Amino acid sequence: MKLSQKALKEIKTNKVIGALIVATDKSYPTIKRWIDSENEKITDSRLCINVIKEQTGMTEDEIFEKEPKKPKK
User: Could you tell me the pTM of the whole model?
Assistant: First the structure.
């Protein structure tokens, strides 16, 4: 899943990054790299998504971009 631009802006704050560091026991550079590359360890991790929701007040619909529907054949 792809993170929305609004979510990326919110996630890149020290508050959210700090919470992700504590929750995952990973370093700042690791968390920053995960965010910058939209690594599946951020986007597919229930722990990370819950931390993001808690810290930002965003819903999952706001965190992720809606994927365009594929046309029917």
Answer: 0.83
